């Protein structure tokens, strides 16, 4: 319990969470002259060096004495970046998004989060731009979500995939070490690092055997993150996230390809759905829940690496079956298994054990696989109906 005294008011913190340079306070106050409680909105703050003297009777705001925490997100225009920005904004953060200067239609790509995300121009392939951004922003937390993240495409562009996904992480870590060493760093690692799995389920201790240029690049980024933690004593964490989907998933990914295909077939806009290996199995979760796990990692007293997963595995065929049956159709009448969509080196079975995250972070998934599939189908149905209505207007 922490007490701050000021004229006629006693400020008491009912909760204190100290993490290096930051403190989280939930304030209540009681008048010396009369019993009166005032509830202030919970927020995440960085403690400033200014004197902690408050006078609520004169309506002085906490912002005069404390400044909001700042978070920098790379890959802010992607699925995870969008949900993470929303989540951090709801926590009271100042949210900065790193976007390449050459990017087009930035506000359109950001969508609703454009209202509060502060755009910073930088590129993971350009060390100078990263140092300039970090030196200027001085973020409390850095979330590196940017990557060339399409596994199949990585076979066609292995060099650029490694430059962005692997070396890009190293450049960002080095920029942080040089200009903002107080920052906490989250690296978006991937279950694709396990590849040809050595054990089932996969944990933080399972050996890596990546089966794609994307997986190789993620392994490099993983070990760079560990090295900067151990070698430079920086607060760096890896979140080994298994597949996580949502209504905002890119159309090039198989889950969104299925949900969009189901919607278009149901509305008579498409006849068949061509897919690759229907027997490939993945551990699929709901993206908005996974970004909370990212944040939780950076709220701990010590940095560490965590597997984030549901602990269940489902095949692409199961995804199709649930998606089509949701709209009253049989997937066998519409899905075509097409060899042209096979990966050169397939990863057949991924299933994660998130026991460590459950125990240390208090994190667990809530949305079921079936709920996830139906949400995606419903969202694409509504979107396709809206587009049809606009076209006929």
Automatic annotation (TrEMBL):
Catalysed reaction equations from the record: GDP-alpha-D-mannose = GDP-4-dehydro-alpha-D-rhamnose + H2O
Broad class of enzyme this protein falls into: lyase
Annotated ranges, domain NAD(P)-binding: 72-376
GO molecular function annotation: GDP-mannose 4,6-dehydratase activity; NADP+ binding
Cofactor requirement: NADP(+)
Record EC number: 4.2.1.47
Pfam families noted in UniProt: GDP_Man_Dehyd
SUPFAM superfamilies: NAD(P)-binding Rossmann-fold domains
Xref: InterPro entries: GDP_Man_deHydtase, NAD(P)-bd_dom, NAD(P)-bd_dom_sf
GO BP term, example: 'de novo' GDP-L-fucose biosynthetic process
Keywords carried by this UniProt record: Lyase, NADP
Domain of life of the organism encoding this protein: Bacteria
PANTHER family in the cross-refs: GDP-MANNOSE 4,6 DEHYDRATASE, GDP-MANNOSE 4,6-DEHYDRATASE
Family, similarity comment: Belongs to the NAD(P)-dependent epimerase/dehydratase family. GDP-mannose 4,6-dehydratase subfamily.
Protein role: Catalyzes the conversion of GDP-D-mannose to GDP-4-dehydro-6-deoxy-D-mannose.
HAMAP family assigned: GDP_Man_dehydratase
Name recorded for this polypeptide: GDP-mannose 4,6-dehydratase
Organism placement in taxonomy: Bacteria, Candidatus Sumerlaeota, Candidatus Sumerlaeia, Candidatus Sumerlaeales, Candidatus Sumerlaeaceae
